[in-house]
Amino acid sequence: MNIPQISIIFPTYLRPKEIVWNLEYFRKKISIDYEVFILDNSPEPLIHNFQANENYIFLNENIGTASRNIGIKKAKAPYILLLDDDSHPETGEVERIIAKLKKSPENIAGLICEIHNPDGNREASLLPTVFHGAGVAFKTEALRDNNLYYPDNYCFYGEEYRLTLEIYSKGYSLQTSDIKIIHRRSPHGRDLSKIFYYLARNNAAIWQDLTPEHYLKTVLYDSQRRYELTAQKENVTEALKKGLAEELPSQTSPRMLDVDFENFSLINKFKQLPKSDTYILCGTGKFTTLWAKVLEDKCSQLLIADFNKAFHNKKFGRHTVLSPKEAIKISGTFLVGHSSILETLNWQKILQTNNLESYDIRQEYELKSV
Q1: Do 81 and 166 belong to one domain?
Q2: Does the pTM exceed 0.85?
Q3: Is 232 helix (H, G, I), strand (E, B) or coil?
Q4: How do strand 173-183 and strand 87-89 relate by DSSP bridges?
Q5: Which pLDDT tens digit goes with each residue over 240-290?
Q6: Whether residues 179 and 32 fall in one domain
Q7: How do strand 6-12 and strand 79-83 relate by DSSP bridges?
């Protein structure tokens, strides 16, 4: 086998058909030398005719997303593409990843990819500065030389936030890109109670370990308030409580510097806004009341609106969340770009339909039609 130009890594659990689908797709669609690492967390190994560049590693236990670290440590290529077992890059995108990363500045650790459903629609993402686990590309050395790996005790959910925070704390950042990843979203293994348990437990650990001390109380409130309201809607409140009650051992990572956390959380972008009579925050995002504290010093009236019906007429701090229908009746400056890209695109659509102007917090985002 020739030296690979890129290492493709994905964990899996009880999805043998997805493994085979991915491998057959890679063989047909990728034109350059590559290697694959399949990290199988399943109770029984998969019997399959793997090729020389397909490294199947049976773990004999479920260590969740931390299994990706095995692939990162073994990768021979200068670039890594991390996928889920039910996601794949569109034809030609692996080659474009390499070209983009070769040209990127030294402080860019990787590329945040666009995640699409098979029907072409964008999938909801996380905070704009955070990568989606179904598709992200990294420079191998940026991860390994700085000991940047997935947390080993999260199992799943929240691991992207943790790794992104640690990337920022090392002076790196992630670059948004138009690299398209298709997320087939296998329905197997999605248990809402487990999801909310891990979300609550892992997010509390992330913020406790890494957030600058004077931001910590507000960040914990914002995170838990979002999950509390959503869990009520989904009838999984007990699972949420269980997750919040279980504390993970503290990690050795130092707390982030203010400047790094403010870049990650977009506080620096909000601080750059001019004064206004009324600001309307379009989407609660991840740090609702944290952003609100910055905006309150810049306007006479601050309003917050969100598409999520679980938040309508509910309080985030001292602000009641409006529906989009209520928000567009108000005269003011509409702020977008601070929450998931899908939410930003939906807000752009509704504001354009009603001939309302908006200000994109990220600015560097090239917003495309939905």
Answers
A1: yes
A2: yes
A3: helix
A4: antiparallel
A5: 999 999 988 877 678 999 999 999 999 999 999 999 999 999 999 999 999
A6: yes
A7: parallel
